[in-house]
Amino acid sequence: MTQQPIREIIIVGGGTAGWMSAAALSRFLPRQQTRIRLVESEAIGTVGVGEATIPTIQSFNAMLGIDEDAFVAATGATFKLGIRFTDWRKRGETYFHPFGRFGHDMEGMDFHKLFLKLARQNRCADIWQYAPSAVAAAAGKFERPHSPAKTPFDHLSYAFHFDASRYAQFLRQYAEEHGAERVEGKITHVTTHSETGFVDQLTLADGQTLSADLFIDCSGFRGLLIEGTLETGYEDWSHWLPCDRAVALPTQNVGKPVPYTHATAREAGWQWHIPLQHRTGNGLVYSSRYMDDDRAEALLLSNLNGQPLSSPRKLSFTTGRRKSLWNRNVVAIGLSGGFLEPLESTSIHLIQTGIAKLIALFPDKRFLPVEMAEYNRLMRNAYDGVRDFIILHYHATQRNDSPFWDHVRTMSVPDTLTHKMELFRSKGRFFRFEDELFSTPNWVAVFLGQGIVPEELDQFVDALDDDKLAHSFEEMRQLIRQNVARMPDQSEFIRLHCAAP
Ligand code: FAD
């Protein structure tokens, strides 16, 4: 059978997921061959949050050929070098999860194992002092990597904090320039084909009807097509991630924006602090089982630095993911596909993953089951890996000062996470499952930050001479410090290259 190319695509929703999908598809599908339309309803609006990202966003922007300075200026973005976690392991303790690596491996041995060997002898500094991004973050510095690198440590791995609505606008302009068409209106009715069950037609409130071969459901938590029409089913993970509410409130900046996200644990959840060029994003994520909405709002208001710029915005959600993200001729991308709370800023990354895998497995009108099955397998793995990493932050706590922390500390966790924790706890070993997002330095930062320290070490680390090792570590630390000392302040870098107009 010959291929029957997709000629019409409808994207339902114009939030971050919708416009990222429209931008990417319009970049790769010539407008003469495939018509791309995006339907959104101003009356319904978007979720309006989602400001912190991880470094993978750079490859999305690069794939679109977006100039980074133009993007930073247009979205009021700042640079993000990692996340500072306060009060997660114990009250009064802080650790940093930096982007990029710690130090470098030596003689084939993982850096963190060598670090642990020296740490047992008190012959090294805190682990974050060997991570260029963490040292630069602590000093408020930023610089793009040199090309070619002058030393192994002048490469700062970075992402952005940006204004989500400005990002959607920015991508809308890009997508429209590449031929995508926007349709304003509220979808009130969806019909399916009587034999195949495929989505056939959308009807808008004004009576207009729209048909397509492929539908991308970016309609947010409601999952208009994937759930509302196709009843695909949802895997609820709230027994592992009990936070189900958030209250968000932007404030004026106080002082210079720092180049990192700050996540502070609270009595039944945690608070985010995300500095942009023109304002600061704040919010409290909490579990309604352990804290009511009034208490959450009061707690957030009592922990703000700057003047509020609006009234608090309340959101509720159920952590989990669709059982299948691709069902018949509908692919769910963004919140319609699932939601993991923003602790490690992974939602926009999962949108990007959904788009990249859709492009890699792009269907024709036959919708081959093997392609859909592979997409669903890859996306399930992507969500599940992130889920385990987020649960780790809660479960590996020593806090016992509230019923919420007692619950997450003592709850059972997925077997896949137990396996990783046991491997690390015994001899400091870590293995990435397939192409899961987070890799050894990410897990090591959180394992150690949350107090999971290996009981023994691989016997191979004994082969290295302790004095030489301590000397190399000190050289690394000094080199990183010297590199960072030469870097400009983040605010100065932005002023020179990419200030918002
Ligand atoms: P939405 O923004 O909800 O967009 C849905 C779209 O569908 C809208 O355009 C709406 O008009 C349209 N629509 C719906 N129904 C209809 C209809 N009947 N007819 C026509 N149009 C319709 N992610 C991160 O990566 N980093 C973060 O720091 C982060 N923080 C977050 C904090 C919180 C509290 C929450 C809840 C989420 C956060 N996220 C974060 C997730 C991030 O906000 C989302 O992944 C992102 O905004 C994408 O949302 P979306 O486009 O899927 O949905």
TrEMBL record:
The keyword Nucleotide-binding applies. SUPFAM superfamilies: FAD/NAD(P)-binding domain (SSF51905). The active site is at K80. FAD binds at G14, G15, T16, A17, L335, I348. InterPro entries: FAD/NAD-bd_sf, Flavin-dep_Halogenase_NPB, Flavin_halogenase, Trp_halogen. Coiled coil: none annotated. Pfam families: Trp_halogenase. 7-chloro-L-tryptophan binds at K80. L-tryptophan binds at E344. Keywords: FAD, Flavoprotein, Nucleotide-binding. Signal peptide: none annotated. It comes from the Bacteria. GO terms for molecular function: monooxygenase activity; nucleotide binding. This is Tryptophan halogenase.
